[in-house]
Amino acid sequence: MVYGLMWKGRFSQQTADLVQRYGESISYDWRMYRQDIAGSIAHARAQVKAGLLTKEEFSQIESGLRDIEKDIAEGNFEFSIELEDIHMNIESALTQRIGAAGAKLHTARSRNDQVATDTRLYTREEIDEITSLLGDLKTALLDQAEANAGVVVPGYTHLQRGQPVTVGHHLLAYVEMLDRDQQRLSDARKRVNISPLGSGALAGSTINLDREQIAAELGFDGVTQNSMDAISDRDYIAEVMFALALIGTHLSRLSEDLILWCSSEFGFATLSDAHTTGSSLMPQKKNPDVCELTRGKTGRLYGNLIALLTAAKGLPLTYNRDLQEDKEPLFDSIDTVKLALRVNAEMISAMQVNADTCEAAASDPLLLATDLADYLVKKGVPFRNAHELVGKAVAVSFDTDTPLDQVDLESIDSAYGPDAKDVFNLKLALESRTNPGAPSIANVKNQVKRWRQ
Ligand code: ARG
Predict the structure, then answer these.
(1) 324 Cβ closer than 6 Å to some ligand 1 atom
(2) Chain centroid to CA 235: how far?
(3) Distance from the CA of 152 to the center of ligand 1, in angstroms?
(4) How many angstroms separate the CA atoms of 121 and 125, rounded?
(5) How much distance in Å is there from the Cα of 82 to the middle of ligand 1?
(6) CATH architecture of the domain covering 3-107
(7) φ/ψ of residue 160, rounded to 5
(8) What's the CA gap between 217 and 43, in Å, rounded?
(9) Mutate which of 21, 112, 118, 317 to test ligand 1's pocket (most atoms within 8 Å of Cβ)?
(10) Does domain 364-452 sit in CATH 1.10.40.30?
């Protein structure tokens, strides 16, 4: 039996069944129960300070809420959609369990500041967890980058072979992206971690509770300064969902690279049996489903962000029920990204790089056409002319079906000397790429070291 709805006083009809089903959020916001309870305890403590609750009432409230928390954690709590959301489910159970003191809890508080508080606390925790999962994926990439720091592979633009890089350098590019993702989340966290509690429904309260005390107890860095903004602000959710969408973009690009690498056409890498699936029809197949799912799920992350931005864009101040539509997309983005990060870290760790295939692909002398132009530049030829001269050599290579490193360069132009052939030493070519950010093996190893610190 559920305790009655809190706002029923002026109503003479029951809420229609369909309206309850349409409007409930308990089926998904129940996951914020720990945050809701922490917020209520801090709020109650401030009420003691304000002389609104006795110490005895406070301890009844606190232990009542802790019991409820335990029951929910153990799956022994019955949620009711008649009570719409986590806030009313918990408050109602509390009053049912402890009586009068429970009925005092909601003084100087609204579900509007409550839901904003819960969501901020919940998001803060998830940011911390996602930041650490990003760290795990970075570590998996670093391990592979280190193990394959010297494996030369073509680098591509337009998916056409461009210049030589190493597998290590290629993978470290993703470490850079994931590091920026961590920075973005930590920046967003500053704006998430501000307490809206005390903003009431929209205009604060005539009863003054110590907002700073409540905020400090909940680990917030400060309190919001405008009650109307505090109630209707969902920027912090949008920011986090953008950061999650961008993580999706990065994982999706990584997926695409791995799908190519694992194709028979490339063959640069092999995913483990544990992270691939077969075909029910074609016995030979080993499919990179995890990569494809990651690429596909990125669409959901974008959709979730757009859903929130769209829900918020036409709302007059302050709270409108549309804002209840913030949580499902947020939760979905969080769940999706966490699982994606976990499975990708595992898959990358177990991935095998096929050094021989990589190096065979990188042995294409055309990858060093730019180096040949650089050689001419070092001989005093302006780069534009050097580019043209190498272009001619490439044309001869194609026309006569001769690999570029075997074309008689000296017969093309006197700028080419007998040492021009030295350009085609792949190891040397890589080793001379020592500028900061360039893919020399020494650079890659230093980057790995830097990231490890
Ligand atoms: N379930 C609501 C939400 O998630 C809580 C706030 C309800 N406030 C209100 N005035 N109806 O947004």
Answers:
(1) yes
(2) 17
(3) 57
(4) 6
(5) 14
(6) Orthogonal Bundle (1.10)
(7) -110, 140
(8) 9
(9) 112
(10) yes
What contacts 18, CB < 8 A, 6 or more positions away?
A: none
pTM of the model: 0.95
H or E element at residue 170: helix 167-192
Catalytic residue IDs: 158, 279
Distance 430 CA to ligand 1 centre (A): 60
Q: Give the residue, by CA position, lying nearest to ligand 1 atom 12.
A: 324
Look at the block and give the residue holding tokens 């993702």. Answer: 181
Yes or no: say if 41 and 117 are a contact pair by the CB < 8 Å rule: no
Cis peptide, bond prior to residue 318, ω within 30 of zero: yes
pLDDT by residue, tens only, the chain of 453 residues: 345 677 888 888 899 999 999 999 999 999 999 999 999 999 999 999 999 999 999 999 999 999 999 999 999 999 999 999 999 999 999 999 999 999 999 999 999 999 999 999 999 999 999 999 999 999 999 999 999 999 999 999 999 999 999 999 999 999 999 999 999 999 999 999 999 999 999 999 999 999 999 999 999 999 999 999 999 999 999 999 999 999 999 999 999 999 999 999 999 999 999 999 998 988 898 999 999 999 999 999 999 999 999 999 999 999 999 999 999 999 999 999 999 999 999 999 999 999 999 999 999 999 999 999 999 999 999 999 999 999 999 999 999 999 999 999 999 999 999 999 999 999 999 999 999 999 999 999 999 999 999
CATH 1.20.200.10 maps onto the chain at 112-360
Helix (H, G, I), strand (E, B) or coil at 2: coil
- Report whether residue 117 contacts ligand 1, using a CB cutoff of 6 Å: no
Helix (H, G, I), strand (E, B) or coil at 269: strand
Around Cβ 16, how many Cβ atoms within 10 Å? 9
- Atom 2 of ligand 1 has which residue's CA nearest to it? 324
* Neighbouring-strand partners of residue 194: 222
Yes or no: domain 112-360 corresponds to CATH 3.30.590.10? no
Give nearest CA residue, ligand 1 atom 7. 111
46 CA distance to ligand 1 centroid (A)?
A: 23
Residues of the chain with CATH 1.10.275.10: 3-107
* Distance separating alpha carbons of residues 231 and 317, to the nearest angstrom: 9
What is the whole-number distance in angstroms between the Cα of residue 321 and the centre of ligand 1? Answer: 6
Please give the number of the atom of ligand 1 that sits closest to the Cα of 87: 5
Measured distance CA(212)–CA(92) in Å, rounded: 27
The closest-lying atom of ligand 1 relative to the alpha carbon of residue 29 is: 4
Mutate to test the pocket of ligand 1, among 28, 85, 87 (most ligand atoms within 8 A of CB): 85
Ligand 1 closest atom vs CA 319? 10
